[in-house]
Amino acid sequence: MTTLTETPLAPLLTRLFKEAAAATSPAIARYSSEERARLLGSKTEYLDFYGSLKDLWLAVSPETGTLLYMLARSTGARIIVEFGTSFGISTLYLAAALRDNGGGRLISTEFEPSKVVRAKANLTEGGLLDLVEIREGDALETLSKDLPDRIDLLLLDGAKALYPEILSLVESRLRPGALVIADNADFSPEYLKRVRSPAGGYMSTPFGDDVELSMRLG
């Protein structure tokens, strides 16, 4: 048995995924598919765009969540940084891995205040809040200072266009062998070009349909 498969976390995740699947946003209809694609690639309009969709969970899939747990557990991660808390589903998976690794620290960041409130409530219900620090605000600011000297794992799951910038903020702290998981990385071709470049300092490969898994080289 693990934290992930026991009460209270296992039934909590089941419920949260049902809620995420049922969530709707009245704002989504205002964007055409072309406009959504443009905004996903924007480095200047992401706050307004994602703010308008605050009712959507934008959560990882159960399969990706399990992958996050397995990667964090298998590498013995103790220090994790997450870009994009949303309602905290991925945060729960990562914090569960920290608990089963014997403890640690997860720094997550989310700019939407209502999502921060809900994520903290979910983490409290899951018994994992003590392992997590959620920094409220734009990640370009919240992750620009006061980071641990050594980071074992980085999850990128916020505004896709900012993946290269967030990686740059954290990169000097990534230990050799640290993992970087980018969800929906296909929406950030600039990021993919960087981590897949032979000179970029990473070994990187697509994993599943929507995840890019990269390892920081020493």
Work out the helicity level.
Answer: 25-40%
Oligomeric category? single chain
Major sheet details: 7 strands, mixed
Structural class: alpha/beta
User: Which consecutive residue ranges, at least 5 long each, have pLDDT under 50?
Assistant: none
Summarize the structure.
The chain is built from 9 helices and 7 strands.
Q: Could you please describe the fold and organization of this structure?
A:
- The structure is a single chain.
- The chain has 218 residues and is α/β, with parallel strands linked by helices.
- 40% of the residues lie in helices and 20% in strands.
- It has nine helices and seven strands; from the N terminus they run ααααβαβαβαβαβαββ.
- A seven-stranded mixed sheet has the order 3-2-1-4-5-7-6, with helices on both faces.
- α6 links the parallel β2 and β3.
- α4 runs parallel beside α5.
- The longest helix has 14 residues.
- The model has no long low-confidence stretch (mean pLDDT 94).
What attributes characterize this protein structure?
single chain, 218 residues, alpha/beta, 7-stranded mixed beta sheet, 40% helix, 20% strand, globular
What's the helix and strand layout?
Elements: H1 9-22, H2 33-40, H3 46-52, H4 62-74, E1 79-83, H5 89-100, E2 105-110, H6 113-125, E3 132-136, H7 139-142, E4 151-156, H8 163-170, E5 174-183, H9 189-196, E6 202-207, E7 211-216
